[in-house]
Amino acid sequence: MTVEEQELFVCKRLKSEREKANLSQMELALESGVSQNMITYIENGKRTPTVTTVLKLCNALGISPAILFPAENKEKQNAKETIISLVERFM
After folding, report:
1. What per-residue confidence (pLDDT) applies to 40?
2. How much is the pTM?
3. Which among 61, 51, 53, 66 is positioned nearest to 28, based on CA atoms?
4. Is the dihedral of CA 75, 81, 83, 86 positive or negative?
5. What's the burial of 42, exposed, middle or buried (CB within 10 Å: 0-12/13-18/19+)?
6. What is the dihedral of CA 82, 86, 89, 90, to 10 degrees?
7. CB under 8 Å to 15, separation ≥6 — which residues?
8. Which DSSP state fits 22?
9. Distances (CA, A) of 72 to 45, 79, 83
10. How far apart are CA 90 and CA 21, in angstroms?
11. Residues 6 or more apart from 40 whose CB is under 8 A from it?
């Protein structure tokens, strides 16, 4: 999986988690402090969220950022662990 494919996976997973939480984009925007437009761009794969944005969205959704990343092989697991360690520094 390329980096671009991984980014798209994260964006789609965010949308899936928002829908699972039964929140509209506007409700998530209000809860997270991330604009509704940015959420739309992220969910459509037009923007890649920053670590800060991912943390805000995950906190508002009540999920761990780890949920957003696939762990199918060793390379992906290493990438996931790196990202999670970066995220943990901001928490």
Report:
1. 96
2. 0.75
3. 61
4. negative
5. buried
6. -150
7. 43
8. T
9. 21, 11, 15
10. 24
11. 25
Closest CA to 59 of 13, 28, 25: 28
Please say whether the beta carbons of 14 and 68 come within 8 A: yes
Residue-wise pLDDT for 56-65, tens only, equals 999 999 999 9
Q: Among candidates 88, 74, 48, which has minimal Cα distance to 14?
A: 48
DSSP symbols for 35-66: -HHHHHHHHTTSSPPPHHHHHHHHHHHT--GG
Length reported for the chain = 91
- 10 vs 87: which has the higher pLDDT: 10
